[in-house]
Structures are given as C-alpha cells and as structure tokens.
Amino acid sequence: MSRFKAHTVLPGFNLALGFTVLYLSLIVLIPLSSLFFKTAELGFGGFWDVVTSDRVVASLRVTFVTSFIAAGINAFFGIIVAWVLIRYTFPGKRIIDALVDLPFALPTAVAGITLATIYAPNGLIGQYFAAHDIKIAYTPIGIVVALTFIGLPFVVRTVQPVLVDVEAEVEEAAASLGAGRWDVFRRIIFPAIFPAVLAGFAMALARAIGEYGSVIFIAGNMPYISEIAPLLIVAKLEQYDYAGATAIAIAMLVISFALLLFINGLQWWSSRKGGR
Amino acid sequence: MSITIQNLNKQFGTYKALDNINLEVNSGELLALLGPSGCGKTSLLRIIGGMELADSGSLLFHGEDIQQRDARERNVGFVFQHYALFRHMTVFENVAFGLRVKPKKERHNEAEIKRRVHELLNLVQLDFLADRYPSQLSGGQRQRIALARALAVEPKILLLDEPFGALDAQVRKELRRWLRRLHNDLHITSIFVTHDQEEALEVADRVVVMNKGKIEQVGTPDEVYATPATPFVYQFIGNVNLFHSRDHAPWSDEHGDAVAYVRPHDIDISRVAQDETALAVEVKLVRAIGSIVRVEVAADGSSEFIEIELSRERFDSSPLLEGDKVFIRPRQFRVFEAEAI
C-alpha cells in the first residue's frame, strides 16, 4: 500500500479508492456475480445445453450481428455529423446539436413503436422500400434501424472534442505541402480521431447489445430470424426459468466483455501509436 | 522567385487588417515583416501563402498572378509558430508527407523518398530523431522538423510565421543564427513574421516595418535603425527619448510644434554645461546591464525620465551616483512635426 502512496501527492487516496470499490461492488460486481450463482444451479452441463441450443445461438447471432452493423453505421455517420457540427457555422446548428442527444432522452419503447410505424410496409418511409420488395420493419433490418437510432449520440459525442483539438493549422500545413482534401482527411484527421471513433463505436455497440425496449416493437420477434437474446431472456423469466435466463445473460456478458476488451486494446494501441 | 504585391487590401468585419499594401520581395532574399501584434503582418503572410484571400489588389509570383490558386498549388513552404506537426506521425513521416501526397505521376519511389527525407533531416541536424514522435521533441527540435517538412517539397518561397515565438530566449537566439546560415546556403526567397525587432535586425536582409495595416518603412536593418522614416519606426525599433519643442526649444527650434527623437546612446553626459543647449538634470537611477550602463535622469522639477545608455568603459571613466547634478546634450536627433505623430 505504502508503495502506491509514495508516488502521489494527491490526498485522499485511501478514501477515494475505498469508495470506488464499494460503489462498483454495490452497483456492478454484486449484481453480476449473483448472475453466476444463479446459473450455477444448472451445473456446467445444464448451462452448456441452454446456451448452445439452436434458438439461443440464433438469437445471440442476431443480437451481435445487428449490433455490430448498427455501431458501424453510427461510426461512419457520427464522424460526418461531428465534422459538420465542429467545422461549419450555419443557422440552426445548436438545434441540430441538441437533436443528437434526443435518442438518449426518449423512452426506448416510444422509439421502437415510432420506428415500427414509420418503417412498416405501409408506413411513411417503409412504403417506398416496400415498392422495391424491401421489408424493413419486422426483419433484422428493422433491428439495425432501431439500434442505429439509440446509438446515434455515442460516436458524435466522443469525436466532437477530439475534432476540435485538430487545429486548423495542421490542415493548412498539409495543404501547403500539396495535400488535397481527401489526403488531409485520410492521413491527418482520421488517424487523429480514430481512437475516439473506436471509443464511440464500443459504447454504441455495448448499448445496442443490451437494447430491448425499442427492438421488440420493430423486430417482429420471429425465432431464429429476428429474435434478439434479451427477448429470449425475458421469455424465460416469464416461464419462471430463472437459471436459464441468467445462463443466456452470462453468455452475452462474456461475449460482450471479450469484444469490449478487444476494442479497448485496439484503442490503446492506436492512441499509443499517436505518441500521446 | 520574386513576389510583387500591389494595392492589397484585407478587411475583417470593420477592422482593416491590410490597407493598400505595396511591396516588392526580391528573389532569394530573406525579408522580415516586423510590427506589433495586430499590425497585419500575419494576415499578409497568410495571403501570400494562400491560407487567406485578399479583398482586392494583386499578388504576383515572378510576374504571374497567383491569387486564383489555392495553397496547395502555390508551391510555398509554410512554417507555423506552434509547429503544426502531425503528431500521430514519426518525424520521418512528417518530413515525408509532402512527398507522399504528390500526384502519382510525380511521386518518387520509396527509396528516393527515404534518401530525400534523410538528406533534409541531416540538413536540420536531426537525423537521429527520425523514428521519434513530435511529442518527444523539444520546441527547438520541433520547429527544425517543421522547417525540414516545408523544405521537402522544394518550395520556391518559404514563409515563416513567428517561427521562434514559442521558444525560450536561448534557443531562439541559436535558431535564428542557424536560419540565417541555412538561408545563405539555400537562397530560397523567404519571408518571416516577427514582433521581435532584435530578431528582424539580426536575421533579415531587409525589414518591412508595419503598423495598423500599413507599411511604415522598408529598408535594410541598418537603415530602419539608423534612419527611421516615421515616429512609429523610431519608437518601435530600439529605445528612444522624446523632447517636445515647447519644453526643450533649443533641440528642435526650427519647428513650431515639434518633437525631437533621441536614442539613449546618442546622449552625452557631462558635469559642466557643454554649451547653451545643454539641459541641467539630476541622476535618478543607475543600472549596470551587461556591457552597458543605463542611467535615468530627470530635469529639475520634471517627472519625465530621460533614458541614457553609456558603455561600461565610458561610465567607469567618470562614474555617476544617484542624485548627481549633471548636464546632458544629444549628439544626434531627429525632429518630427507634432501632427505627424
């Protein structure tokens, strides 16, 4: 203990660390570990049977694939939105800036119902896709739409401050060296914001994996096709199969944790490469 | 490459940054734009570099109007006060940047790029830092890398915006001598912006003194120091004492309402009155600063201090003490009409 303390001049290390551990225990560690205890009732064989059953595997696949696509879409368009909000001034900019956070504030069920209505084959937008035989609502595409909606703010909000930091001077320097706009973006701006994009992507992904409220209204919830894992968990709970529900939860938890760990590693690596 | 600037104007809102600027920059010379902050020197530099557009007037490189060309087509090297290095790239990649973004047809192969970058890094004497990132370098090293990066594309014109402004005094001094030597070897037409008169006088072939969007004087460092064209140049370059004709008539008697400008080192001190124009003063402060001694005196009953600089040798031959009554007389001065000031 004293070895750590010797390195810091900030007071209150013991108190702060103690509080952090207590807080994380009450909010995160104890609830999550109780998941493992509940699942333990099944034994390893029972657990394995649950998480490898066809329907569970299919739902996990739907959850993670759609979440990945949605987070990817958000990363791409999030960069553009952040770019527009930072680099240009135009009337109504503050309103657009506020609009970005709206998906956070809206109850997810409201978002799901609204999206389902609009993207249904007879809905405001869905009808045009239906004319080309593309169904959005009640398919995995609908899930992606909902997940994109709820994950919108993450990339925008993580990239914005970093983009502000990329001085106009650096871009001018690049231009005076003969670089065109695309070269400037590809070689100067993108490498600078990449760690932030990754961070935003990871958050949007995590949010999408856990999303329930908005998805169930638009997904159609057909087993093996558009049924997400969180829905399956709720279904098992309704059948009083608590251990089965926690088993799926643990499978999601482990996969999510591995994914986030990997993305964080990538982010650490890329920002280290930036010499910062 | 020579630069010709004719009747150039630039306005930011209601603020006139450049007011009808005319300037000729000779091929191969090192020119300093000198002036207080807000005088328009940086705006002028940025317009030449293509980072800013003039409202009116013409800008010619070697007789050719280039105002329609944007920064990347002007073949101008630009060095920024805060370096503007690409911080996610190594020093090597920073310098190589200009070579890598060339159009495919003109681009050199990897071996040639490598050779050129190392040549430039040797030129700025930092080849051993090729694999470092900018954040691992000192300020002086970063600025030298920024210069190497600008030189990589073989610019015809080099523009430097307060290149040593962010560095500490010692490094600044060293770097400006180094820049002067480098310019002697390369002979690229160069313009650098500075608010430091010492820097401008030491480094530049010619100095352009600017104030409030206008050019006050263009001349060699010696000219602007020894024969300032306007009161502003007198005050901005070097120290100066002002004597109003109504108070010190003998020194500026040929004009009605005029002010005489006298450099601190152009004033003689004597214990006896030199002649009838000598001014009786009392020594208020004596400060030895390195090789010179600064003496501040005030006329009887006046609260205005007159600054005088003596060489240490001269001071030692007849030392002064605070409170001594002495006489002063200017060896050299220049009179400006009061309304010209």
Mind sketching the topology for me?
The complex is a heterodimer of chains A (276) and B (341).
Chain A: H1 2-5, H2 13-40, H3 43-51, H4 54-87, H5 93-105, H6 108-119, H7 126-131, H8 140-165, H9 168-176, H10 181-210, H11 213-219, H12 229-238, H13 242-273
Helix pairs in contact in A: 2-13, 3-13, 4-8, 4-10, 5-8, 6-8, 6-11, 8-10, 8-11, 9-10, 10-13, 12-13
Chain B: E1 3-12, E2 15-25, E3 30-34, H1 41-49, E4 56-61, E5 64-65, E6 76-79, H2 91-100, H3 110-123, H4 139-151, E7 157-161, H5 169-186, E8 189-194, H6 197-203, E9 206-211, E10 214-219, H7 221-226, H8 231-236, E11 241-244, E12 258-262, E13 267-270, E14 279-289, E15 292-299, E16 305-311, H9 312-317, E17 325-330, E18 334-337
Describe the structure.
Chain A is mainly alpha-helical and 276 residues long. Chain A has 2 domains: 1-40, no CATH class; 42-273, MetI-like fold (Orthogonal Bundle). Helix content of chain A is 80%, strand content 0%. Chain A is globular. The two termini of chain A are 29 Å apart. Chain B has 341 residues and is an alpha+beta fold. In chain B, 26% of the residues lie in helices and 32% in strands. Chain B contains 9 helices and 18 strands. Chain B has helices spanning 41-49, 91-100, 110-123, 139-151, 169-186, 197-203, 221-226, 231-236, 312-317; strands at residues 3-12, 15-25, 30-34, 56-61, 64-65, 76-79, 157-161, 189-194, 206-211, 214-219, 241-244, 258-262, 267-270, 279-289, 292-299, 305-311, 325-330, 334-337. Chain B has a 6-stranded mixed beta sheet, with helices on both faces. A 5-stranded antiparallel beta sheet of chain B has the order 13-17-14-15-16. The longest helix of chain B has 18 residues, at 169-186. Chain B is elongated and about 80 Å long. At the A-B interface, helix 9 and helix 10 of A face strand 6, helix 2 and helix 4 of B.
